[in-house]
Amino acid sequence: MRKIVFGPVPSRRLGYSLGVNNVYDKYCSYSCIYCQAGRTTRLVIDRMKFYEVNELVQQVIVEANKKKPDVVSFVPNGEPTLDINLGREAELIKKELNLPLAIFTNSSLLTRQDVIDDLMFFDIVSVKVDTVKHVTWRKINRPHPKLCLEEILDSIKSFSKQYEGRLITETMLVKGVNDNEEEYESIAEFIAGLRVDKVYIQAPIRPPAEKWVKPPSEDEFTKAYHIFHKYLGSKVELLISSEPKSFKFTDNLVEEIASTIYVHPIRIDYVSELAVKHGKNAEQIIDELLRNKIAKIVEYEGKKFLVPAIRR
Ligand code: SF4
Fold this sequence. Notes:
312 residues; alpha/beta; eight-stranded mixed beta sheet; 10 helices; globular; binds iron/sulfur cluster
């Protein structure tokens, strides 16, 4: 049932994004408390093979030609740079498709030259900077014990100087963890030292790995925005509202939803709207997903979401 490619989903940053889930569930070098894919079950830093290159590339080409997305994004439910074939996959996709190629990385493996070489194939690279403080990093990103924050921050800095594509940073703010002025000042000061095109401040809007994770108040976001703006001007944008609901799915909604929720939990009310659009019955779709143990329902901030049944 599960496919490597999912969506396109409406991305608040990039338009309609065809997602590539190029690592297995859930290999990551971090286990972020807010991760919408749940807790990391395989905390690893060694790169490895996940799928056959041709299988992945063919799936992307077929789906992109069928669904006409605005962008193809490597945004798995884990860390995409763990994939040892990443560069080859990106190179082949670029040869076949006239579409921008994006990747969302947690930046932890940017210390490796082979990862940097692979990222050069991408038109858009998004790097995670939730904090520059060691204690907060351990608390929010829960990194693999062999990783070193200072080395990661240095490598982001040097990558930003060599990379010629569009570089984005993403900072997730979590209530009681990194929502204070000292954090905003130090993160913004660090990002201001990068060659960066866009700086996003985000809030957890989908069910997080840890139930206690909450978004900061709107006042806190305003404070964070003003401090970031002082260092980075108009490059800063707040991403704290829900994404648009229009998914570009085929009529096989059960399969489309099943492949998407591994990376991107979907709100139940969005499923109802999708069903109406495709002339289907939402209750039947949800029932099939639950009955076959593909999905389960989780509530977050007053909204109900479909997430994978196996999610921890
Ligand atoms: S948010 Fe990204 S980096 Fe953090 S645990 Fe999830 S997949 Fe890994």
